[in-house]
User: Fold these one by one.
Assistant:
Number 1:
Amino acid sequence: DLWFDYIPVRIRGGRKFERLYLFIRYKTAEEMDVVRRLHAEKSARNEEVPRRTKAKKTVVEAVAPEISVSEPLGAEIAEMTLTKLSHLLEAKARLQELQTVISPELYDTAGTVIIYLSRLLTNTSNEKKARIANETRDALNRILERQGDLQIWLVGMASMMKTLREQGRLKSPQYNATVVFNAMEDITILPLGKEELHNAGRKDKFKPDLTVFDE
């Protein structure tokens, strides 16, 4: 009666996966009906199936789908796995660009914020959590509409969470995800992100666009 998902995590500077984040939620009544039906069908047949000979693998170059950093998040994200949704949010925040820009600690915290967001967006096991998932998506879409992507917001949120951790004010992953949810549209988040990027040398990101005055 449970769904399991996981995200392997590397420590910055290493190549091996050293941590594993596990996510567990109860199946809905509808999902359990499907599971019971499939189990009953398979049990009724009770057939032995020999192991098939493995086919020779064909190497196919994988092409990553084009992701628009400013496109709003749709209702379909609630059906995504945590891993897939985390990758989508990382793309919208252009997280990879930040790896050589901000401090390793702030970069790791930004990745953790992405995981908290993914949990908030996919956990719809009851009415309250479904409402929180919808409100989280709506807040992210408002940020996308105003900012064009999630990068500045993510850096600001990571900066806030890093400060709270240093003050000993963070607790369990569930509690920390709630902290992210409550602070999503806090007026201090974007200024924090801009300050962090400015201090990291990304001054060009905040220069005014003077091309509008070209004749």
Number 2:
Amino acid sequence: MPLTYVKSNKNDLIDAEAIAEAVTRPTMRFVEIRTPEQIDLQALHRVRDRMIAHRTRLISQMRAFCLEYGIAIHQGAGKFRADMPRILADDANELSAAMRCILTEIFGELAELEQRITTMNREIEAIAARSDTARRLMTVPGVGPLAATALLAAAGTGQQFRKARDLAAWLGLVPREYSTGGKTKLLGISKRGNKYLRRMLIHGARSCVTHLDRSRDRLGPWLNGLESRMHKNKVTVALAAKIARILWVVLTKPGASYARNDPAFS
């Protein structure tokens, strides 16, 4: 509750009075009540995100232990999974028996964790496949089952946003403003709102910047123009903001989906 409406000290009576005053304001914004389905889906994503973070910690710990013995492993989960069994099986390296045992146990823990992550990914993919809205959201470039279901869990129907830019602003993908005295000053993105969903969209946008077939998608000429005048990271965030606006249209208009029209060249 905004502190602006709390007069003097804080107690239950003053809080109730402040709430009654706040709800009468025409420009006050309220949090949309989530459905049980949204709560369950968001919980699924949060558990998966925790598992991903734990997997990263396990890999980092094992890499650090190996470096203590002069054994360097490539970065990245895929290369680590390929290199670690070879290192554990190599009796000629300098790993001690105790450290080899410790690494074997941690690697087994990692394998079990990855199996749980795979199971959870399949569950999320199944939810996305059953949802008509999620399937339409996945027609947008850079949006897969994870981003589509995360948006449904966080934003629901999207009707609480008056326009597409409101969704992008809610995700913190628009510039912060610090203007005074008639002087407009725009800063970096605000990074407000759901950081998990914002990260999903930025990762998807980064993939599009690299792999999107620009000769066959309407976003191609727009991306080419951005890349000619700004850094690739800024292009990625700008594309993520545009994707968020497109998602709002798909989310709020029944039957709408992204049309990958060929760009018009003059």
Number 3:
Amino acid sequence: MDLIDSFGASRYDIHDLELFRDAVTPAVKRALAPCKVVRLAKGEQLQDSVRAHLYIVLSGALGVAAETAMGEATIERIAPGGSVGEQSVLDDAANLDTMTALEDTELLVIDADLLWQLIDEHNGIARNLLRLLSFGIRKANAMLRRRQKLGEFYRQLSLNDGLTGLYNRAWLADMLPKLVMRARKDTTPLSLVMIDLDHFKRFNDTHGHILGDHALVTAAGVIKDALRPSDFAVRYGGEEMMAILPNTGAQAAMLVAERLCSRLRDATVFTDMRLPLPHVTGSFGLATLSPEQDELALIAAADAALYRAKQAGRNRICS
């Protein structure tokens, strides 16, 4: 950063600066005349580690770095007439933002004591400063809302299986205990169906893992489409999936499981019927929450029923 002039001897017009808009008087000009004008080369960082200053961009552009909630850096571009450091002056603290010249840039440097003097003596400057701070707060709030939306997007993304789009184990660990608590509180039934695609290892060995993934996606779509809007489809792991059926007793859950089993059996994984094993089937284990069970016991009961369905010949439902 090189000192090139004083503001009074520079070519710049005070009327072009936002902070002094409609607030220029001979006294203001005299006060600013001794202030330094410094030059930053493109890519050079502005250092303000000693005490707070206000920096007004006279030419070029200054980039102020901020970090998003996801750890990514964003750059706010400060154009000529704009300023940086208002908050640090008010806090009487060093400006810790990373400020970098986006091109060759000249800055007016105003000491904190002088800025406070100008604020005390000139109401117009005080109003302009409040307006600039208000704009900054609005911009920060808008950025915060965008970050919150982005954070919610990533949170939802983290709760879905990347291959099938179904909910994943993280979602299950968070939501199933809540669904169990709600069922107990409302004294409503809750059922769970465990689904395992039959002979899926043989399917993968026959067609390869890429087409095996296609079969998983197809099966997941069949299951999701066959459920009601109030139900939840989860990829439990590998070729094992789960349907959670709130407010559903054993008899109604059996009807849902029969619909899932039938639609999975009828679904065509590949349109080329010359391929072996163009269909997949599933084994289904059904359990309904009992008074003594928690979410882990409910899963265990459905898993035990699933094992019985496999032992009985697969492509069927046991409860």
